[in-house]
Structure prediction request, 437 residues.
Amino acid sequence: MAGGAFVAQGGRHYEGGVTVFVVVTCLVAAMGGLIFGYDLGISGGVTSMEQFLIKFFPSVHKKMTDETGNENAYCKFDSHLLTLFTSSLYVAALVASFFASTITRVFGRKPTMFLGGLVFLVGSILNGVAEGVVVLIIGRLLLGVGVGFANQSVPVYLSEMAPAKIRGALNMGFQMAITIGILVANLVNYGTAKIKGGWGWRVSLALAAVPAIMMTVGAIFLPETPNSILERGNQEKAKKMLQRIRGTDNVEEEFQDLLEASEAAKQVDHPWTNILQPRYRPQLIAVGVMIGLKFGVNGLGTLTSTEANLVLFFICAYVAAFAWSWGPLGWLVPSEICPLEIRSAGQAINVSVNMFFTFIIAQGFLALLCHLKFGLFFFFAGFVIIMTIFVAFFVPETKNVPIEEINRVWKAHWFWGKYIPVEAVIGGKVDKSSGHV
Prediction:
């Protein structure tokens, strides 16, 4: 990527290696992604179950089972109430992320994960026993609060615990957990849809309690990150924790950098105000063709078994590509690029922006599909092109750079460097002729 690859070579190399303790700790923490993944996978399957639709969304069920051949295939699921059930989670996650930011900064990463798992557990119970749309959506909102807390705290926790050389690999455990959650949810939906009596949807929704319990219990036993311990003023405990996760007593250099970052963070009274300052600005698909050919613009038509399998293959290819690129990096990069003093606020913005646009897409997707038809797939393909161009020119490489030295990357970048003052780079001086730190 442009602008940052050479900086990694100039990053400090601390003592210590990859310990079993830190790997296990990060794997346990990454389980927080299970709740998000399970919900993503389960909601889509449940909303297509006949008994679920009959009970909560009868008008959608009527359109879905229309056999006259006159019902537009693009518009069968176009219901604002149905999309509200799906998208309400993302609104709740958006709002919750800002509260989670304060809890993460003041009380630590562990309590935030614990609260997220606990609230998600309550939401899954309400969804499983719901008899009306109101309780169903309240449960959904609580799930959103849990997701907001988890997505706020887990990526930050992983970035702070992991050694620089494997930070990306360990942080991607969060996306791996999301993907596993989606897979498990789809397998659950496949099984519960076959349950006679029409109550399989309750099992699907209630089983969200399993990843919630895993996250809640896991958070109890996880250690706090050295960065978080320092934020609350306990230097000796923070140093001992750093020694434990690095597997060596010789952590003086890294600890000193963490200490300097912590002291700088304490000078910031209002991270939400400071994050607007110039120095933090750098941190701030084939399916459409086939569907268009078969359904045109009137939405009338069918897919043969072979054609349906080909569409499924293309969708799976898209999901796979997303899972090894935008999926994990959308959580990894924001969690590691912010200085300690604004890290919680920065992650909250990341989560809230993610949830906001997910809400917009979830709330408007069925209506857009109804109006744009197969063109909707090309609409999103255009955004992929824009995102790719942005990454190529404006996102620097952060591989092997210690998390507290990330400002070196931004200072050396051809565009963002002008926003980063020299004093923001820990122990660094800038060669004005080359721009290198």
Summary: The longest helix spans residues 340-372. Confidence is low (pLDDT under 50) at residues 1-10, 428-437. The CA atoms of residues 152 and 399 lie 22 Å apart.
